[in-house]
Design brief:
8 helices; about 35% helix; single chain; binds adenosine-5'-triphosphate; Rossmann fold; binds magnesium ion; alpha/beta; 4-stranded antiparallel beta sheet; about 270 residues; 6-stranded mixed beta sheet
């Protein structure tokens, strides 16, 4: 396969009617104490195809969360456009769910109330709250935990609540920022498989941030790779049949290939 072919839209995500979210030339600088202005995103382009599972892979501090924050509107870019279906869009025009690096649950509210709080913030009619809360807690395997409090849940369970909360608002696009990085590998593997089941069943579009190459290969249709200069230096399709198995040698091979590219572009 040539590099040009490799970067064509992936077969699994084509054929959907949902328009691609297109980011073009996104530039973001931050003022840092003692360092002056630093360039965090240097002309980043990114296409999130409707229905695709897309990963954003890069080392710590390269600007992954900043890019997610630009998409969600928590940070405003200095330059660059976001378009969908040929039109400029602002974050408020998008139907987004955001799962942060840490679960960010309200400890004084029950699990169900945490989800209802998100539904209320999105102006979802109260008559739908209970049905949605029950349905999505069930989906992430926490059907019995609605009346429990977050402080009494394990880290993996808290992340499941955060996933249920994002799903409950029924967004088109789900942004996930290293949601499993603080979990042990056994729990993380279970959650990745559950996430893929939900992605397929609910026909969502997912943009998933990680610095774990194996995780990106296991999950994604295609992967964007960032370096520490704030540049998106490659987009690579995974091209491994689903459902994927962790012990499939094709996964290890793809991981090695991508690691080599990182080594050339990131590790100095
Ligand atoms: N609000 C802010 N003000 C100033 N600097 C910021 C701000 N947010 C992020 N930065 C800086 O921007 C750079 C990129 O941060 P970002 O959080 O996007 O990295 P990341 O790729 O998500 O890293 P990690 O994998 O560790 O989460 C870092 O140097 C960080 O200190
Ligand atoms: Mg981050």
């Amino acid at each position: 396969m040539t590099a040009a072919e490799e970067n064509q839209p992936s077969a699994e995500s084509s054929g959907t009617s949902v328009d691609t979210l297109e980011l073009r030339n996104i530039v973001k600088r931050f003022e840092k104490p003692g360092q002056g202005e630093i360039l965090v995103l240097d002309g980043v382009d990114l296409d999130v195809e409707g229905g695709a599972f897309v990963s954003l892979l890069g080392p710590s501090g390269c600007g992954k969360t900043t890019l997610m924050n630009v998409i969600s509107g928590l940070v405003t870019q200095d330059q660059g456009t976001m378009r969908r279906g040929g039109r400029d869009v602002a974050p408020g025009d998008l139907s987004l769910g955001y799962i942060f690096q840490e679960p960010r649950l309200l400890n004084w509210k029950t699990v169900s109330e945490n989800i209802e709080f998100a539904l209320e913030a999105r102006d979802i009619p109260e008559s739908e709250w209970q049905e949605r809360t029950d349905r999505y807690l069930e989906m992430v395997g926490l059907g019995d935990e609605g009346d429990n409090y977050p402080t009494r849940l394990s880290g993996g369970m808290k992340q499941r609540v955060a996933i249920a909360r994002a799903l409950a608002i029924e967004p088109e696009i789900i942004l996930m920022d290293e949601p499993f990085s603080s979990l042990d590998e056994i729990t993380a593997r279970d959650l990745r498989e559950e996430l893929l089941d939900i992605w397929k069943q609910e026909e969502k579009t997912i943009l998933f941030v990680t610095h774990d190459i194996n995780e990106a290969v296991f999950l994604s249709d295609y992967i964007y790779m960032m370096n520490t200069q704030g540049e998106m230096f490659a987009r690579r399709n995974v091209n491994i049949d689903r459902p994927r198995q962790y012990d499939d040698p094709a996964i290890a091979q793809r991981e090695t290939e991508l690691y080599r590219e990182f080594h050339e572009n990131v590790v100095h």
